[in-house]
Design a protein that fits this description.
There is one protein chain. This protein is an alpha+beta fold. It has one domain. Helix content is 46%, strand content 13%. A three-stranded mixed sheet has the order 1-2-3. β2 and β3 form a beta hairpin.
Length: 119
């Protein structure tokens, strides 16, 4: 099954908009040692830490805060974040409610499936 990239697209759109509006953040957002995929993996890991019985519902502000934190702070670049990216339809879920950045500003929900080995 193909990966659902809507979560990654929402995060990337938010970060690009923030970088366009915040000169200091723009510098950090250009850091080549970081990526949106690794940022999303970081967000998913933070959500996993909040999960109870394999599921967590995370507010928009918290998800976007984690995204900004990933770029603001020094994060390990040892590949651990890459390993956290998972395919859909396996294991329990973490639900991160995120705001769709668009003309209509509609909301979207990104569901991240966890594998048993990543719990």
């Amino acid at each position: 099954m193909a990966k659902n990239n809507s979560f990654e697209q929402v995060i990337q759109t938010y970060l690009a908009k923030r970088a366009a509006e915040d000169e200091l953040f723009a510098v950090k957002y250009k850091d080549e040692s970081k990526s949106v995929a690794k940022c999303c993996a970081y967000i998913k890991e933070q959500a996993r830490k909040k999960a109870q019985n394999g599921c967590a519902i995370i507010e928009d502000a918290q998800v976007f805060g984690w995204a900004v934190h990933y770029y603001d702070e020094s994060m390990p670049t040892d590949g651990k974040a890459d390993a956290a990216v998972v395919d859909a339809n396996q294991g329990d879920c973490v639900v991160a409610q995120t705001e769709q950045i668009s003309d209509k500003a509609s909301a979207t929900t990104a569901v991240v499936e966890l594998t048993e080995e990543q719990k």
